[in-house]
Amino acid sequence: MTAGTKMKLNTSQVNQFLTEHTQQKIEEIIPLSGGNWSQAFAFKRDGKDYVIRFGMHKDDYINDQAAQQYASANLPIPKVLNIGEAFGGYYAISEQAFGTMIDELDHQAMKRVVPSLFATLDAIRIADVNNSTGFGYRDSTGNGTFDTWREWLLDVDQDKPKSKIYGWKTGLKDSPIGIKPFEEGYASLVELSKNLPEVRSLIHNDLMNFNVLVNDDEITALIDWANALYGDFLYEIANFVFWGPIHDPIKGIDWESATLEHYKSIGLEVPMFNERLRCCMVRMGLDHLAYYGFTKDWTYLEAVANRTLAIARGEA
Fold first, then answer.
1. pLDDT at 265 over 60
2. In which band, very low, low, confident or very high, does the pLDDT at 3 lie, cut at 50, 70 and 90?
3. In which residue ranges of the chain is CATH 3.30.200.20 found?
4. The domain 100-312 is classified under which CATH number: 3.40.50.1000, 1.10.150.110, 3.90.1200.10, 3.30.450.20?
5. Is 243:256 a contact under the CB 8 Å cutoff?
6. What is the pTM of this model?
7. What would be the CATH architecture of the domain defined by 11-95?
8. Sign of CA dihedral 190, 196, 202, 203
């Protein structure tokens, strides 16, 4: 994916900032990828390992900090120790987690991780969200920004000035495929989202973008909760089912069947499983088409459009 708006700092600038901020000697600074919206650096202080991120979106870091309330043995979340202003934007300092990104695993390694992954997805699903209200993305108070799950699902067609990807509609219209696939998929979403149960759970919503670390076939950390949601927990499963035929690390695994087998093993009944999963996948595909319209990165555009329409039409 093409990165969004990111700072362009060098290690000297970061070293000076950290030295002045902590009033301590910084032992080592190593640039990290940081994702699409932040620039990140690993550093050592007093022999301990940390990560500092710099970006323009403070709420992203606040969401990371808020997610710590859900941490458990099966849901390891690095602690955010400090958030503040820096270089015209914001910074966050966190404990550093170690492991291999799930996206970098080969097929056999991915298969071995599946049990730990389902344990983590269960931990996310059962996280206590009773101290908040609403559906969709978390606001600054920790509440969802929509009254119903369906409202959030259908909001995917809105191109809002305050959005990180504002302007996506124009970009998608000018893309090699145009906006018609999006419009067809959205029309299907309107119909598919009728009469679905209003299930409300925590959702990480970004598990396949270098945000899950693994060591010895066990998940060691979930990072970057910037896109966290409240809603149907099958949206998390949809991430793997949707990308299964497209994304190399998770190809060759029947994620839908594996999920059903897992739910059966733990005695979890999921009413309207197929309808809910299909609706989540169509919404997910539309969301990615909008993102590509913003970034103007057409690498996966056609594949995602075809996958989205196949699901919307009931052909996949």
1. yes
2. very low
3. 11-95
4. 3.90.1200.10
5. no
6. 0.92
7. 2-Layer Sandwich (3.30)
8. negative
More confident residue, 282 or 164: 282
Sequence-ordered strand ranges (E) for the chain: 28-32, 38-45, 48-55, 80-86, 89-95, 100-101, 135-138, 144-146, 201-203, 212-215, 218-222, 229-231
Hey, what are 211's tokens? 């945000």
Percent of the chain topping pLDDT 90? 86
Helix (H, G, I), strand (E, B) or coil at 94: strand
What residue spans in the chain does CATH classification 3.90.1200.10 cover? 100-312
* Position 4 pLDDT exceeds 60: no
Phi, psi of 138 (to 5 degrees): -70, 140
Residues in the chain: 316
Q: Which residues contact 135 (CB under 8 A, 6 or more apart)?
A: 144, 145, 146, 147, 148, 149, 151, 152, 198, 200, 229, 230, 231
Q: 47: buried, middle or exposed (CB in 10 Å: 19+, 13-18, 0-12)?
A: exposed
pLDDT per residue over 110-134, tens digit each?
A: 999 999 999 999 999 999 999 999 9
Torsion of CA 235, 162, 292, 94, to 10 degrees: -60
- DSSP letters along 66-90, please? HHGGG-BTTB--PPEEEEEEETTEE
Report pLDDT digits (tens) over 31-67.
987 667 789 999 999 889 999 999 998 999 999 999 9
What value does the CA radius of gyration of the chain take, rounded to a whole number of Å?
Answer: 20
Confidence category of residue 5, pLDDT binned at 50, 70, 90 = low
161: which residues sit within 8 A by CB, 6+ positions away?
none
Rounded CA-CA distance 34/49 in Å is: 16
Rounded distance between C-alpha atoms, residue 157 and residue 153, angstroms: 9
Dihedral of the alpha carbons of 13, 18, 19, 22, in degrees to the nearest 10: 160
